[in-house]
């Protein structure tokens, strides 16, 4: 679902085209504003790459021995998972910034605004992903 959401976001941005008088300058009014925006961006990145807390639980359930430690497949799995997340989010970030410049909102769907049916479909994908995560967490707490 994240792949579909990401594809919707960047394809709709490309279709919209670069806005008139796009501004690529840094959008801050003071040094403290720049620092706040930097830490806010770090928080966005940390949220995008969430899931690291599940890794230890998964690794604990994997069979492990001295000859075949579980850290090897876990390392490969983590690297591929982060590559997958980057493949989903970097096109959205780069194309969104190219199209809208510094006027892009934190949620690119808010910046797109049209067509409403596409925004609704992407929002419903986000909602279903969140509901699926809640269901997963509830199942985990039952075991």
TrEMBL record:
<feature type="transmembrane region" description="Helical">
    <location>
        <begin position="117"/>
        <end position="137"/>
    </location>
</feature>
<keyword id="KW-0812">Transmembrane</keyword>
<feature type="domain" description="Amino acid transporter transmembrane">
    <location>
        <begin position="1"/>
        <end position="131"/>
    </location>
</feature>
<keyword id="KW-0029">Amino-acid transport</keyword>
<keyword id="KW-0927">Auxin signaling pathway</keyword>
<keyword id="KW-1133">Transmembrane helix</keyword>
<keyword id="KW-0472">Membrane</keyword>
<keyword id="KW-0769">Symport</keyword>
<feature type="transmembrane region" description="Helical">
    <location>
        <begin position="77"/>
        <end position="97"/>
    </location>
</feature>
<comment type="similarity">
    <text>Belongs to the amino acid/polyamine transporter 2 family. Amino acid/auxin permease (AAAP) (TC 2.A.18.1) subfamily.</text>
</comment>
<dbReference type="InterPro" id="IPR013057">
    <property type="entry name" value="AA_transpt_TM"/>
</dbReference>
<comment type="function">
    <text>Carrier protein involved in proton-driven auxin influx. Mediates the formation of auxin gradient from developing leaves (site of auxin biosynthesis) to tips by contributing to the loading of auxin in vascular tissues and facilitating acropetal (base to tip) auxin transport within inner tissues of the root apex, and basipetal (tip to base) auxin transport within outer tissues of the root apex. May be involved in lateral roots and nodules formation.</text>
</comment>
<protein>
    <submittedName>
        <fullName>Lysine histidine transporter 2</fullName>
    </submittedName>
</protein>
<dbReference type="Pfam" id="PF01490">
    <property type="entry name" value="Aa_trans"/>
</dbReference>
<keyword id="KW-0813">Transport</keyword>
<keyword id="KW-1003">Cell membrane</keyword>
């Amino acid at each position: 679902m994240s792949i579909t959401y990401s594809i919707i976001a960047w394809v709709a941005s490309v279709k919209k085209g670069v806005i008139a008088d796009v501004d690529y300058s840094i959008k801050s009014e003071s040094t403290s504003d720049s620092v706040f925006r930097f830490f806010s961006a770090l928080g966005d990145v940390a949220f995008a790459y969430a899931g690291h807390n599940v890794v230890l639980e998964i690794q604990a359930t994997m069979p492990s021995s001295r000859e075949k430690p579980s850290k090897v497949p876990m390392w490969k799995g983590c690297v591929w998972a982060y590559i997958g997340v980057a493949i989903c989010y970097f096109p959205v970030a780069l194309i969104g910034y190219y199209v809208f410049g510094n006027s892009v909102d934190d949620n690119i769907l808010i910046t797109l605004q049209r067509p409403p049916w596409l925004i609704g479909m992407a929002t419903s994908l986000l909602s279903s992903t969140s509901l699926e995560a809640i269901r997963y967490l509830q199942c985990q707490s039952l075991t």
